[in-house]
Design a protein that fits this description.
- The protein is of the alpha/beta class.
- 31% of the residues lie in helices and 21% in strands.
- It has 12 helices and 16 strands.
- It has a 7-stranded mixed β-sheet with strand order 1-14-13-12-7-5-6, with helices on both faces.
- The longest helix is centred in the first third of the chain and has 18 residues.
- The two termini are 18 Å apart.
């Protein structure tokens, strides 16, 4: 197993892992309890099942999108969510013994009566300090002016896609930065697509790109599993902005029943099993994957490789992501710096290291350097899993190659 953080963290991670950073890898097989996560022979979701879920979703939606809920503090939201879930259980819409509250992540999990997994995230998507502002991305000197060196003067160097699911782009403080990325990376030889309406189907087409960027919210999902004896299981999930609905649930019925996809706050979320099924047999073409999502490699300083391992098993050459919740601006800057270095011909580990040298070895270092005074509990830092020597293109040939 080849799992490497930036050089700033190599020694520290080795020391911490013996004390606090215990590698507890959550197996994707945990999602297979009940329906098989690796088989499409599961009974299809029925219209009656979808109708029951729609009834439960409508009640949850009415709660979390109410003005009253918006004005509540976290404890009040927890109480309101608990009462709502208890009521849904009494109506037979969700399984009573499936309700679980993860205090660390501020998330309720539950199982619909038909076996699909759901959740309510109580905390707001945006956890940035109000005193910190999005700052323009700086163009590196090496790529200013004539963006191509003598070594890589052949276009294109490759292609990339940004799966942007942070928000709907309206009045967004994030979105303008990704337009800058798209414009400059394309100018520098990496034809870049910016997908602002990310669907589950979109994430099944990642093999078309050399670099796949997952710019989504993420969470660490803890849920009750098992039929006779309940026990807690955990997994990172990527939260999309594709809204669940009666017809969409029927469309994605197999993915929902096999727990490749779950529903949180009315949006579809993908689990590691989603990628395992979508790219079974190594359908990815040795591409590079960079995830900006919180807790992609686990949370609370507990390492989880299930998401990255699913992508590697699917044929990706290397996967970059963050352990713990990560500040938005830091993850954006690390993404920008890493891809810029790949364009300059660096391998993925060199690229991540160079970005960390510029923006900080972890997000708390960055946060404090920006004047922040109340950092979150655990520092987030980038890890490289897979072939840390993977490159975007060959310097000798000036063409895409992993």
């Amino acid at each position: 197993m080849n799992l490497k953080p930036s050089h700033f963290w190599k020694r520290l991670v080795c020391a911490v892992s013996a004390l606090a950073l215990l590698a507890t890898v959550a197996s994707p097989a945990a999602f297979a309890e009940g329906p098989s996560a690796d088989s499409d022979t599961t009974d299809s979701l029925t219209q009656a099942d979808a109708a029951q879920m729609a009834q439960a979703d409508a009640a949850v939606d009415a709660l979390v999108n109410s003005n009253t809920y918006a004005d509540m503090d976290l404890d009040q939201r927890q109480q309101a969510a608990q009462e709502q879930l208890d009521d849904l259980a009494s109506q037979g819409l969700i399984q009573p013994d499936s309700i679980y509250y993860d205090e660390e992540n501020g998330m309720y999990s539950f199982t619909y009566e038909c076996g699909v997994l759901g959740g309510i995230l109580l905390t707001d998507w945006q956890d940035e300090d109000d005193t910190l502002f999005q700052v323009p991305l700086e163009i590196p000197e090496e790529l200013a002016g004539d963006p191509l060196s003598e070594q890589n003067d052949a276009l294109p160097l490759g292609n990339a896609i940004i799966y942007y699911a942070f928000d709907d782009t309206v009045n967004s403080s994030r979105y303008p930065s990704y337009l800058v990325m798209q414009e400059n990376w394309t100018k520098w030889g990496v034809n870049t697509t910016l997908d602002t309406d990310v669907t589950l189907q979109d994430l099944k087409q990642m093999y078309d790109y050399d670099i796949c960027i997952l710019s989504t919210h993420g969470a660490y999902y803890t849920y009750n599993t098992g039929w006779l004896f309940r026990r807690l299981s955990t997994s990172p999930v990527l939260i999309l902005r594709e809204e669940s609905s009666f017809w969409n649930d029927l469309r994605y019925g197999i993915d929902l029943l096999t727990h490749r996809v779950i529903k949180v706050n009315g949006y579809y979320c993908v689990t590691p099993d989603f990628f395992s099924a979508a790219y079974r047999g190594g359908k990815l073409n040795g591409n590079l994957v960079f995830s900006e999502s919180c807790e992609f490699f686990g949370g609370s300083n507990q390492l989880d490789l299930s998401m990255s391992q699913a992508l590697l098993n699917g044929g990706a050459s290397a996967v970059v992501g963050f352990i713990n919740n990560v500040y938005t601006i830091y993850s954006r800057d690390m993404l920008w710096g890493t891809v810029n270095q790949l364009i300059m011909g660096k391998n993925i580990l060199q690229a991540v290291d160079a970005a960390a040298a510029t923006y900080g070895a972890d997000d708390i270092s960055w946060y404090l350097s920006q004047g922040g005074t109340s950092p979150h509990r655990y520092a987030a830092f980038a890890l490289v899993h897979g072939n840390d020597q993977a490159v975007l293109y060959s310097l000798d040939e000036g063409s895409a190659a992993a």
